[in-house]
Amino acid sequence: MSATTAEAPTKKKLSPRKRAQRIRWAQYTALILVALAIALTANWPQIQKQFFNPELVKTTLTEGVGSALKNTVIYTAGAFVIGLLLGTVLALMRLSSVAPYRWIATVWIEFFRGLPAIIVFIAFGLMSLAFEGFVIPYDPYGTVWVALGLVASAYMAETIRAGIQAVPPGQIEAARSLGMPSGVATRKIVLPQAFRVITPPLTNELILLVKDSSLVYVLGLSASGYELTKYGRQLSSDNASLTPLVVAGFCYLIITLPLSIIVRRMEARQKKER
């Protein structure tokens, strides 16, 4: 072979962009194949019977889902208010210069953050046995508000504390130099700015409370106090079908999806303002 013969052309390397495109297309293809496999092998008549039974959907929507949805909202709203108020106090105690306040707040926060919420519900459900004559007002709403609010306060306290610490110290010093008392400066300057920062995380806490309200079933409520999960479980048990629970799940989405959209918009607005 002649020495002047041109060397074989080297293989051209893919650019990072082309490589990323090929990886994405491979992932899309794999997902489509998995979806087709599930669609072809699934027992659709049985799925419809167990999860999307039209008659049970109608029964679930007409027999009491409205009352269960209302109870879920009431339970969540009351617990959120208690958690927010108590969490604010705990956050201020955690940042206090008084050591006993810091110790109390730290123990409270770590205790209720480490304890499963269902244990708190069970404890409050058995409270009347431990303390004879002890009754929380507006039962069962009051019991749920207090139990769930105590758990929520521990998480909200840490969120609020982070928001307070995000406020520039110079603003507090300026207020104090003008003769404004510490409490007034905290109330009028620190907390408004802190809550503006932590509104998205607090809304996420609200979404978690909506889902945690499903633990109310351990209190053994009457039918009038059922929330969505208890209502769906009861109908599912009576009809040997999971359709009522699926309907209850969609009702939760009716509450949580708008809140999630609000969180994303608030976060996007905060990013633009920075």
UniProtKB/TrEMBL annotation:
Q: Which ranges carry the ABC transmembrane type-1 domain?
A: 69-263
- The organism's superkingdom is given as Bacteria
> Which CDD domains does the annotation name?
TM_PBP2
Gene Ontology molecular function terms on file:
transmembrane transporter activity
Q: Where are the transmembrane segments?
A: 25-44, 73-93, 114-135, 245-264
Source species: Pedococcus bigeumensis
What topology does it adopt in the membrane? Multi-pass membrane protein
Task: Indicate where this protein resides in the cell.
Answer: Cell membrane
Please name the Pfam families in this protein's record. Answer: BPD_transp_1
Q: Which Gene3D superfamilies match?
A: MetI-like (1.10.3720.10)
Output a single Gene Ontology CC term carried by this record.
ATP-binding cassette (ABC) transporter complex
Query: PANTHER family per the record?
Result: GLUTAMATE_ASPARTATE IMPORT PERMEASE PROTEIN GLTK (PTHR30614:SF1), MEMBRANE COMPONENT OF AMINO ACID ABC TRANSPORTER (PTHR30614)
Q: Which PROSITE patterns does the annotation name? A: ABC_TM1 (PS50928)
NCBIfam families referenced in this protein's UniProt entry, alphabetically: HEQRo_perm_3TM
Q: Name one GO biological process term.
A: amino acid transport
Q: What's in the keyword line of the UniProt record?
A: Cell membrane, Membrane, Transmembrane, Transmembrane helix, Transport
Q: Which family, according to the similarity comment?
A: Belongs to the binding-protein-dependent transport system permease family.
Q: What is its main location?
A: membrane
Q: Does the keyword Transmembrane apply?
A: yes
Protein known as: Amino acid ABC transporter permease
